[in-house]
Amino acid sequence: MAEVSLSAHMQEDPKRTDREEEVRNAGPFIAISRQYGCYGFSLGLLLLEVLNDEATAPAQAWRVYHKELLERLASETKHGEDVLDRERRSRPRPFLDLFRSFGRERVPSGFEIRNRMTALIRRLAIEGHAIIIGQGGAGATHDLPNGLSVRLEAPLDWRVKEIALRGGLTETEARLRVRAKEREHAYLERIYSKRFPRRPAFQIVYDSSVFTLAQIAQHVVYAMKLKGYI
Known about the structure:
The structure is a single chain. This protein has helices at residues 20-24, 40-54, 68-77, 81-89, 94-101, 110-127, 137-140, 156-167, 171-195, 213-226; strands at residues 29-34, 63-65, 130-133, 147-153, 204-207. The chain contains 10 helices and 5 strands. It has a domain at 26-69 and 129-226: Rossmann fold (3-Layer(aba) Sandwich). The radius of gyration is 18 Å and the shape is globular. The chain has a 5-stranded parallel sheet, with helices on both faces. By secondary structure, it is α/β, with parallel strands linked by helices.
């Protein structure tokens, strides 16, 4: 893909390039959101395995998209994924952004990065057979047909124990990590809830402390079939 114009292309309304016929025939797709510690990527991989086992043609093969979205954006803008991810999560800094705008290699603002990622997510959902993990995917696709938005949540104590077990941490260390991640995500959640004010925000919410990932994956596939998406 050719390098995009940061001043225009990255600020373009993501819906502007959506053709009406494409939107009508969007999907199927699944957008997964999760609280920190709820194994959203692992659920995506399980869904990938189940759905591709049932696919009857190469054109129906599913793919998981997570960090790949930042990789695409990094390729377009010629900036590192870590830089883009940091800016995506950062609050507006008018003076710093103004100063950097005069730089030779201008770094996109958080708004531009989120806006462009929304456009990329919508394109993947419209093309179909996409499992989108995080990155504001549920909000970006809220008005598209033939897809499900899924949210994984769990009590704090359960998530702390999972993080401690997974990372070889004490429960105190794990609790501090969870709190830090939740503060980090709070700003983005407020931004996306204002931009995509759908209520309820997700079509299906699961308690990860009650259902196993395998059970959740089976239920999501069943729900997709009930709706006629697959």
